[in-house]
């Protein structure tokens, strides 16, 4: 299916594999140049940092144009890649679904109509759109009302059958489930904001008017799907310690802690249990606002009949545009929806297994040795994902020939750019260094696992593809070491180089982020 891409990638992968076979830290089968010797010494010094004592490190750097390997340490070692996994998912989606792919959410009925009376059920069918906002459901309800429907005698049926009913990814830990970066996946869902964190709700706590009173709790979007157990207190003065946590297995959000009179509203993002019901609740409220009454109950998970007639429709932004919030903010939900969408489109099965099979086939056609890796989900939350850094570099080198490459490359986080939808998860890293505005790369973070894989232009103007994957460290963060390597690559030159060691670059401090989280996963974002 992708013979064109495979042929181009084969030459690159052969060069990478030949160099890797020469040894863990050998640059090429040929004698290294003085510049490479200096680069080796610099990266080796960075990787000798005490924060990596007892840890595992894999680093590969390749000239993306020639395929010449400039550095390889443990390039074939399988390591937990965290969100670097999204490189596989996003490139497969761009190639197999196409940059113009859209998700459709529609409303239809199979019942007869007489005037404003609809004698039958109303079907809300999800197409997997992770960008559906409450405002979009309001527009759908407005279209239903504009069609003349005033009363529906039957049920409101929430059809999420485009994908299977497995809501959480393989191997995800149960205690991540209430947090927004591990939201349940459904073909019918709601996002509360334009970060498009589908399957979550933003809970707000506003201090009461006097000490001793309960804070006022509200949600965005307003809904009846979640219940609030408000145990928090308003105090006269003191530090705000408000906490929001949804109880596992249900939709009760427990609010605890304190907030002082006159303090700003405290907010946090919380996942919902069963996003299909959440979407149906938001849509039903929108229908009511537009003067459409549904007399029946809400039914979840029933398919829309083939005979149903359309009443309303909403199409998402194209996939090319979705790549920006997906990659810049390392949105896990987008990765998992795209995985299931790949399975649905290519094999008719909206499952993780079918989607991962499609991603694997694409990666193999791109020259990646899929026999050396294991991918268990689309986002990288699973700790059973294992990918050698050399395979990321093979993929990064191969996709440069794709017609959609420029769009995808621009969607990667850009080091040191303060705009959240440009710099993304790299916006506060490598600021004021030669890597700022230069490095385009995907970050990755789990407790004890970190990665940075992408591109940097060196001082001679060559585009380098690199992958850094670090595992099994005990310190809170090794991001500074990744940044030092990226800065060293940005200053790498072969002009007038001697064998003298390069100066090991320093990297500005990254923002303090809870262990194991991407900085954009902390709401409000720290980066």
Automatic annotation (TrEMBL):
Q: Which residues form the signal peptide?
A: 1-29
Question: What top-level class of enzyme does the UniProt entry assign?
Answer: hydrolase
Record-linked InterPro entries: Beta-lactam/transpept-like, Peptidase_S13
What GO terms are given for molecular function?
serine-type D-Ala-D-Ala carboxypeptidase activity
Keyword Transmembrane helix part of the UniProt annotation: no
Alphabetical keyword list: Carboxypeptidase, Hydrolase, Protease, Signal
Pfam families named among the record's database cross-references? Peptidase_S13
Per the UniProt record, which EC number(s) apply here?
A: 3.4.16.4
Query: Does the record carry Ribosomal protein as a key word?
Result: no
Q: Which family does it belong to?
A: Belongs to the peptidase S13 family.
Which PANTHER family does the protein's record reference?
D-ALANYL-D-ALANINE CARBOXYPEPTIDASE (PTHR30023), PENICILLIN-SENSITIVE CARBOXYPEPTIDASE A (PTHR30023:SF0)
Q: What is the designated name of this protein?
A: D-alanyl-D-alanine carboxypeptidase/D-alanyl-D-alanine-endopeptidase
Q: Which gene is annotated as encoding this protein in its UniProt record?
A: dacB
